[in-house]
Write a structure and sequence with these properties.
456 residues; mainly alpha; 0% strand; globular
Length: 456
């Protein structure tokens, strides 16, 4: 039997479980992320040119602090919301209520604890950064928590359209507010810090209103549902925490060792390299809610196909960035950011290798219920990041940070691959796209649209 026919036969056998909405959902998410990325690049270019390398680096640190605090206070509730909303839709209201209360309480506690930390160690931990700007930025933590919890709930409920809307809304509002702060009011760094806070508040209120229509949250805890949320969420909490620190710890270390100007160059390199991930993140957003509901057979069949497609498209994107790295940096950010080119090139191999890992991790967590695996592998890669950052940044600066990150991403990807192959009994060659797979996938897409069976 030909590869094409096997694809089509499997599609016929699992039309609802495996493929309904996956293609169109993934495409809609990709287009959403593409729009938000374009807005992000334009805003990033404006920030880079208007603020200069030093203030751009300072803003990177300031904007990261509330994100780190929100992650520390998050307890994995967002992951649990996505997981259980797909399995227990009738409990969505209780999950939303718990999310709202936890966000307010945990966020407020985070603000108070950070104030104590800042008063004692602010000058040591945040060199070259104005403390009052940090205090303003962390006021967004309760809103970040609530926003993340409720967006995860919408994702688990398969409300991809609303999820897309708020991602575009945030990107668009941030572009407008940053532009006004820098070009109209000439408010500089304090203007963009205040603007970032206001955008977070506005978007969170919009998400809350949308979820209220879907799930009717109330300011009342459901302890039974909360126990389930925490039991599942805490298993993946450390994985999310370690992964975020793996992504962003190097920014703090670069700022600590070589200053805000070099941090500005490094942030430009990282944000440009991570353009490759918008393909994989589109797939992950739609894939996880579906793999949690699929049979083991269906998940084993679908995951390698999604992974191979992600890897193929990501490789093309990474190659394009590699060839055009210098022109892109100069055109978008200006010649002042030429030092960003070398770390950008050094980051691309790790970014590419890591691209399909999210899909494989979704399979491990969603199909097998093993968030502990995600925790362990991200801890190992975080340790690699810390060790190599401490060794390489003092000697090689931002190029050393990029090498450390690439090694860390590669370590994470290898561990994920080994675990996936053992759980699924998949052959390594199945994770690489073949011409017959690409042709067959296109036939599946055409059949969906011709039959009008795509419900996305």
């Amino acid at each position: 039997m030909s590869g094409n026919q096997q694809w089509l036969d499997r599609w016929q056998a699992h039309p609802r479980e495996l493929t309904v909405g996956l293609v169109t959902g993934g495409l809609s998410v990709f287009l959403t992320l593409a729009v938000t990325r374009v807005l992000g690049v334009l805003t990033g270019a404006l920030l880079a040119r208007a603020l200069g390398p030093s203030d751009r680096g300072a803003f990177a640190v300031i904007s990261l602090v509330p994100s780190v605090l929100a992650l520390l206070a998050g307890s994995g509730i967002g992951l649990a919301n996505t997981y259980y909303a797909g399995k227990r839709r009738e409990q969505a209201g209780d999950m939303a209520s718990n999310s709202l209360i936890l966000g307010l309480v945990s966020g407020t506690v985070s603000i108070l604890l950070f104030a104590v930390l800042l008063s004692g160690f602010g000058q040591t931990l945040f060199k070259g950064v104005e403390p009052s700007y940090l205090q303003l930025a962390v006021c967004a933590v309760p809103f970040l928590l609530i926003n993340g919890y409720l967006l995860s709930l919408l994702r688990g409920m398969d409300r991809i359209r609303e999820w897309n809307l708020f991602n575009v809304l945030r990107g668009g509002l941030w572009a407008i507010v940053a532009g006004a702060a820098l070009l109209v009011f000439h408010a500089g760094l304090v203007g963009v810090v205040l603007g970032n806070f206001l955008v977070t508040v506005i978007v969170t209120l919009g998400v809350l209103l949308t979820v209220h229509k879907e799930a009717r949250p109330r300011l009342r805890l459901n302890l039974t549902v909360l126990r389930d949320q925490l039991n599942f969420g805490l298993k993946g909490y450390l994985a999310s925490l370690f992964q975020f620190m793996n992504y962003r710890l190097d920014v703090f270390l670069v700022n600590y060792f070589v200053g805000t100007a070099q941090t500005g160059f490094y942030v430009v390199a990282v944000s440009t390299a991570e353009l490759v991930w918008y393909i994989s993140r589109s797939a992950e957003t739609v894939f996880f809610p579906r793999v949690t509901k699929a049979s083991r057979e269906g998940a084993n069949w679908l995951t390698p196909r999604v992974c191979s497609t992600v890897l193929m498209l990501s490789a093309a994107a990474a190659l394009g960035l590699l060839l055009l790295a210098k022109p892109i940096v100069v055109l978008v950010f200006g010649e002042a950011y030429l030092p960003s080119v070398l770390p950008l090139v050094l980051l691309l191999p790790g970014v590419l290798v890591f691209a399909p890992s999210g899909v494989l991790t979704n399979y491990i967590v969603g199909a097998h219920g093993l968030p502990i695996v995600a925790t362990c592998k991200t801890l190992v890669s975080l340790l690699v990041t810390i060790l190599l950052d401490l060794l390489l940044i003092p000697r090689y600066g931002i190029a050393g940070a990029a090498i450390a990150t690439t090694c860390s991403y590669t370590t994470n990807a290898l561990i994920t691959l080994i675990v996936f192959l053992r759980l699924s009994n998949t052959q390594l060659r199945d994770l690489f796209a073949k011409p017959s797979d690409v042709q067959a996938m296109m036939q599946v897409v055409v059949r969906f649209f011709r039959r009008g069976e795509v419900t996305g």
